[in-house]
Amino acid sequence: MLPILFRDEHLVAIDKPAGLLVHRTALDTHARRFALQMLRDQLGCHLYAIHRLDRGTSGVLLFALSSEVARVVSTMFERRRVDKRYLAVVRGHPPMQGEIDHPLSRCFGDDEAGGDAATPTVQQAITHYRRLATIELPYAVDPYPHSRYALLELAPLSGRRHQLRRHLKHIAHPIIGDTTYGKAAHNRLFRSLLGCQRMLLACTELRFAHPVSGVPLIVVAPLAGEFLRLVERLQWAATLPPAWLPGGVATADG
User: Fold this and answer.
1) Does residue 110 carry a catalytic annotation?
2) Of the listed 15, 28, 41, 54, which one is catalytic?
3) Pairwise CA distance, residues 204 & 41, whole Å
């Protein structure tokens, strides 16, 4: 059963686990489980995907119960009327806060194939980040005797494919566990010494006006599993908003 964070007659939001595709995809013909079909089976009704999360990313994933509502909310995403918050663990110690304004060529996600639209185009992409916590571990990686890591809150203003992963690579602070844009040596360290097998990127919060009522809506996916255990082990939990931790308020409006 997929954890449901919010549901009414127009929308449903789940907490997507890491490793689960949103849609069936030609890029992974061996996958048998997909969030969209699993939720359709779970609720017994037709659903429409509004946005996507990469396979390795966990957190808030939003669906509509009608094509009309799906179109409205998709337009809200495109027009930057949805405030998105992510949490990531990255290599190194970035500045306390910053803006990454770096255009990205179009690429396709885990649940898309190419086709006529595969012609590369460069798209504007902006990400804000805020450093929440840091740590230096006594493990040698590459030529350095110690390894530095940071916990970041990320706010993408645009919604490009793999934007956060590519932007953090661009500023030389790649996300831990990212096998495409990350650093293999640091990924191995987290797997072998800290028991963390997943990519450390999670969509923790969406804020937007309800497409029908107009009431402000907040949907939160508290950290869980490997990500939560790592944050607790590194003593970073106190730096997070209470709602992002187990026992916090998962949804709110008004």
Assistant:
1) no
2) 54
3) 25
Quick: pLDDT tens for 140-155.
Answer: 887 888 999 999 999 9
Range with the poorest average pLDDT among 11-25, 58-72, 180-194 = 11-25
Mean pLDDT of the region 176-182: 97
Beta partners for residue 84, in sequence order = 206
In this structure, the dihedral spanned by the alpha carbons of residues 19, 159, 99 and 143, taken in order and rounded to 10 degrees, is: 30
Residue matched to tokens 């590519």: 166
How open is the CA angle 52-55-59, to the nearest 5 degrees? 65
Distances (CA, A) of 53 to 22, 127, 173: 7, 16, 20
CATH architecture observed for domain 4-253: 2-Layer Sandwich (3.30)
* pTM: predicted TM-score of the whole model, two decimal places: 0.91
Distance CA 157, CA 79 (A): 10
Q: Is the pLDDT of residue 249 over 80?
A: no
Closest Cα to residue 197, out of 212, 211, 176?
176
